[in-house]
Amino acid sequence: MVKQNSEPLEWRINMPDGTSKVLVPDCMSHSRLLLQGFVMAFLNKFWGFLQRAWKIAVNEPNKLMHCLKVGLALSLVSLFYYMRPLYEGVGGNAMWAVMTVVVVSEYTVGATLSKSVNRAIGTFLAGALGVGVHWVATQSGEKLEPVILQAAVFLLAAAATFSRFIPSIKARFDYGAMIFILTFSLVSVSGYRVEKLFKMAHDRLSTIAIGTSICILISMLVCPVWAGTELHNLIKNNMEKLSDSLDGCVAEYFENDVKADNTKNEASNKILQAYKCTLNSKATEESLANFARWEPAHGGFNFGHPWQEYLKVGASVRSCAYCIEALNGSSIYSDAKVPDFLKKHFSKFCIRLSTSCSAVLKELSIAISTMTKSSKIDIMVEEMRNAVEELENALKSLSKQQIASTETKTGDSVNDIGEGNGSPAVVTLAEIVPLVTLTSLLIEIAARTEKTAEAVTTGRESRIQS
Amino acid sequence: MVKQNSEPLEWRINMPDGTSKVLVPDCMSHSRLLLQGFVMAFLNKFWGFLQRAWKIAVNEPNKLMHCLKVGLALSLVSLFYYMRPLYEGVGGNAMWAVMTVVVVSEYTVGATLSKSVNRAIGTFLAGALGVGVHWVATQSGEKLEPVILQAAVFLLAAAATFSRFIPSIKARFDYGAMIFILTFSLVSVSGYRVEKLFKMAHDRLSTIAIGTSICILISMLVCPVWAGTELHNLIKNNMEKLSDSLDGCVAEYFENDVKADNTKNEASNKILQAYKCTLNSKATEESLANFARWEPAHGGFNFGHPWQEYLKVGASVRSCAYCIEALNGSSIYSDAKVPDFLKKHFSKFCIRLSTSCSAVLKELSIAISTMTKSSKIDIMVEEMRNAVEELENALKSLSKQQIASTETKTGDSVNDIGEGNGSPAVVTLAEIVPLVTLTSLLIEIAARTEKTAEAVTTGRESRIQS
Lengths: 466, 466
What we know:
Two copies of one chain form a homodimer. Chain A is an all-alpha fold and about 475 residues long. Chain A has two domains: about 60-220; about 225-465, Phosphate transport system protein phou homolog 2, domain 2 (Methane Monooxygenase Hydroxylase, Chain G, domain 1, Up-down Bundle). The first copy, chain A, contains 16 helices and two strands. Chain A has helices spanning about 25-60, 60-80, 85-90, 95-105, 110-140, 140-165, 165-190, 195-220, 225-255, 265-275, 275-280, 280-290, 305-325, 340-370, 375-400, 430-465; strands spanning about 10-15, 20-25. In chain A, a hairpin with a 5-residue loop joins strand 1 and strand 2 (about 20-25). In chain A, helix 4 packs parallel to helix 8. Chains A and B meet through helix 1, helix 2, helix 4, helix 6 and helix 7 of A and helix 1, helix 2, helix 4, helix 6 and helix 7 of B.
C-alpha cells in the first residue's frame, strides 16, 4: 500500500516549554522565533548553571565560607588605601599587599601557608640576588651593565623554570620558583631605572608580610579548613564508600533474580558506583598531604603528623577499588547462567565474606576517624580470614560433585551438596565460571583489605612514635 | 660457655665511602667527624638531585627548550626597559609586561593561550566594571564613596571566588576569575587615589597585550609543544604500554615454572608495570584536552578537533588497565598450584587471546597515531572474538573431564584432554580456580578492548564530521 501524504510540507519548531509551533513561511516571524529560541536556550542554560552553583553552596557551606573569607581579607587589605596613615606607611606600594591577598588566599590553611611561605622566600631570595647582580653590573661600566643584567635574567629564569620540572621541587616550591623569576626580573630590570632599589625591596617585603599575615590569620581563625582534616576525611569516606559498594555489588549479584529490575532504584545504583571516586583520588590525596605538612597542630593532629602514611592507606584502598571495578560491570552479571541451587549455596559464603570485608573496612574507617587502635579489628580480620577459608572449602566441596558433560542436571537438588558421590548434582564447568571468578576476586579483595588494615596499623604506630 | 669479651668497647662510624673508622673518645675529632658526615650527606643528596635533573634534561629535551624559551621571552620583554623610546611608550608600566610574561609562560601552547586569553578578558572585564563602580561611588558623595567601593570589592571578590568552585568554570576560566578579582580590587582601591584611572587601565591592557603576544609568539614559533599533540601521544603511548603489560602478564603466568626467578630481570618488570601510568592519567588527560581546545590548527589537527573523544578513549583504556591491575599481583600467581598439564593445555588459548587483545590495542594505537581507519582492525577484533570463543570452548571441553574428590590424579596425561569420558584426567575444582579466574579476567579485558575499539572508531567519525 502507498502512503497518502494528505498534509502539506510544514516546519515545526519545538519550544523549550514543551509546545510546538508550525512555522509559516514568513521571514519576520521566522527570525523572531529563532531569536526567542536562542534567548530561551540561554536562559535555560543560565538557570542550570545557577542550580549547580546553588547545589554546591548548599552541600558545601565551607566553600561558601571561603568566598566570604576572601572578600573579608580583601576588604581588610584595602583599608590600607583608605586610611591615610597606613597608606603613607607602606609608601604607595599597597598594591602589592592587595595582590598578595588575591594570590595567596587558598581554600585550605595548608595551601595558604604554603603559598605565603613560597611567596616570602621566593621574593626574599630573588630580591637579594637581584640587588647583588645589580651591584656587580653597576661596577662593570655603563656598556656592560645591560648585558650582564640581561644574561643574569636569562640564565636564572631558565634555571628556575627548569627546577619546576623536578618532581620534588614542583610538589613543594612550584609557586616559589615562579615568584623567584618574577621578582628577580622585576628587580634587575627596574633597577636600571629606579634608584631606590633597597627601598623598593623593603616595601615589597613589608607589603607581602602584611598581605600574607592577613590571609593566614583569616584562614586560620575564621572557620578554618585544614588540608590535614580534609585528607583524613577523604581517606575515611573513601573507605566507607568502598565498603558500601562492595556490599551492594555482591548483594546485587545474588539478588539479581529475586528482585525485579525496576526495584534497582537510583539510590542503590549510587551506592554501587560510590567506589569510583576512589579510583581517581590519587592526585587530590597527594596535594592535600603536601599542604598538610605546612599546617600547625590542629584538632587531634600534631605538627609532624605522619601524613605520608595516609597516602599509603589511600593507595591500598585504591587497589581494593580496582578489584571492585574489575568485578563491577564485568560479564559475570550477564553471561552464562549459574544454576540456581549453586548460586543459593554459594551466596551465604560469598555474602559472609563480602560482609566481613566491608565490616573490616568500616571498622578501619572508624579507627582512622578516632585515631585509636580498634579493639575489634584483629578479631574481625581473623573472621575475614575464616570467611575466606570457608569459601575456599565450599569450592573444594563442590569438587566432590561430578562435573560432567551430560546435560541431565537435577537443578533443584540443593540438599545433595557436599554429600559426596552418593547422589551427585551435575553441573558443567562453564556454568560455574562466573561464580568462580566472583569468588576469587572476593578473595583477592579480602587480601587487599588485609593489606589496608596493615597500612592503617603502621600509620598509627608511626604517629605514636612521632 | 661464657663468651669472652677480649676487645674493649669502641664506637665505629661507617663513612659514606665504605670505610669505617674507630672513634676515639676525643670531643674534637668526634664533632669534626659528625660535621664531615653531615657535609658528605648533603653533598650526596645534592649530587642525587643533580643526577635527577640531568636525567630529565636528557630524556625530555622539550622541557629544557621550554626553559630557554622563558629566558628568551623575559629578555625580550626587558628590552622595553633598556630601549628608551619603547619605555616611554608604555609609560613606565613595563613592569606589568614582565609580570605577564612570567605568569603566562606555560609548557604547552594551549596552556599559554588559555592563560593569555584569561588574563586579557579578566583584566578587561574587571577594569571596565571597576571604572563603572568607581564612577557610581564618586557620584554618591565623599562619605559613601569608600563604603560603596568596599562593598563592591567584597561582593564581587566573593562571587568570583565562588565561581572558581564550579567545575565548568574552574576547568576553563579559573585563572581568569583570579585575575578578575585582582584587577577589580586594584582598580577600585587605587582609583580612590590615582586620578588617571583611564590612563592606568589603558597602560595595563597594552602591557598585557605586549607580554602575552611575546609569549604566544615564542611558544608557537620556537619548538612549539602542543597540548593536543601531547594528549594524542599520551593516549597512544598508554595503549602501547597496556598492550605490552598484558602480553607480559599472561606470559609470566604461564612461564613462571619454565624460567628461573633470576631471569625475571628489571626490563621485563618494567614492562609488566607499564600499565600503571594509565591508572592515574585521568587528570592529565583532562587538563591537556582543555588546553588543546584553545589551540589553532597544527600538525594533522584542525581547530575544533574532537579532543573530548580522546577522553572517552582514555577512559576505556583505563578500564582495561583496572582489569590488568586486578590480575597482576593477585593471588593467581602464588596460590593453589594448577596441574601442569592443564596449564600447558590452556596456555595456548590464553596466550592466543592475550596476544590478539594486545595486537588490537597496538593496531588501535597505530590508528590513533596515523588518524586513519585501520583496514585490519575489524578482522583483528573478529579474531579476538574467535579467541574468546575458543577459550570458552576450552573451558567447556574441560567440563567433559571428571572433576572428582579423589586425589588419584594422573598429572601428565596431557593427551587425554578433550577426549571425553574415555580416560579422564582427574582434577579438583580448587586446583583450577586460578586458571578460571585468569580466563574470565582475560575475557573481560577482551570485552573492554572491544569497547576501546568502538571509542576510537566513534572518535574518528566525529573528526571527519567536524
